[in-house]
C-alpha cells in the first residue's frame, strides 16, 4: 500500500508539472505574432448571427484584413460551419465581411466546414492541398495559438500564428479562464490526438 501511495503521489505530481509547463507554453506562444509570408491567411471560425460575425469572429477578421493589406499572403481563407437552423456559416459570414471591407472577392476562399478547431483545420488542410498551397498564417485568439498551430502542423500545414489583440477573448479579466481551458484542451489533444480534441466543448 505504501508503494501504491507513492506511485499515485508521483503520478499526480507529474500531471501537475505537465499542466503547469503546458500553461506556460500557452502563454508564451500567445505572445508570438508571425506575419508570413505564406500561401494563405486562415481565419479560424467563431460564432456568427444570421450572417453577421459576432465580436470574437469580427476581431479575427480585422486581424486578417490587416495581414492581407500588409501582403502577409495573397489570399484569405475563412473556415467554419453552422449550427442547425443557421441561415449562414462562419466561413460565409467571414468571407462576406471581408469583401464588404474591401478585400477582393477573388482573394477570399470560404471553407464552410467544421464545428471545432480540428474539423476546421482538417477541411482547410484538404482545400489547401487541392490548391497546391502549403503555408498558412493562422488568425485566432492569443490563447488558442498553441493548440491550433499544433493541429495545423500535424495535418501537414507549414503553419505560424498571428493572433488578434482585440475582442472579448483577449481581455485581461478573462485571461486566466482562457489559459486554463486551452491548457486542458492542448493536453487532451497531445495525449489523445483527434479524439482528445473533442473532449471539451465544441468550437475553437
TrEMBL record:
InterPro entries: Cell_Envelope_Assoc (IPR051599), DUF218 (IPR003848), Rossmann-like_a/b/a_fold (IPR014729). Pfam families: DUF218. Residues 39-184 form the DUF218 domain. This is YdcF family protein.
